[in-house]
Design goal:
Blueprint (H helix, E strand, L loop, with lengths): L1 H9 L6 E2 L1 H10 L6 H11 L7 E2 H10 L8 H10 L3
Antiparallel strand pairs: 1-2
Length: about 90
């Protein structure tokens, strides 16, 4: 349930997937500045359907496999997700 809520917050257009632009906004809110090429590489790595977008099962798998860097506190992550609810 928690992963579903996170996914829905990032999926700003409610299309059922996260595209590179949505992923970029999430990373920026977490203080991670990446080039468009780096972001696309990250999306491509997570995307198991080769659609160029991240669907919920891939999102969950990526979160479980790649624990957040410990320098990000829970509060920082929550603040980033609050951005998507505006």
């Amino acid at each position: 349930q928690e992963f579903r809520e996170m996914f829905q917050l990032v999926d700003q257009d409610h299309g059922g997937s996260i595209d590179a632009d949505e992923f970029k906004k999430l990373l920026q809110m977490l203080g991670m500045e990446k080039s468009d090429e780096e972001i696309q590489e990250m999306v491509d790595k997570i995307d198991s359907t080769n659609s160029g977008e991240v669907f919920f099962p891939d999102f969950v798998r990526a979160l479980k496999q790649n624990r957040p860097d410990p320098k990000y506190s829970e509060a920082m992550v929550l603040d980033a997700f609050k951005f998507f609810t505006k």
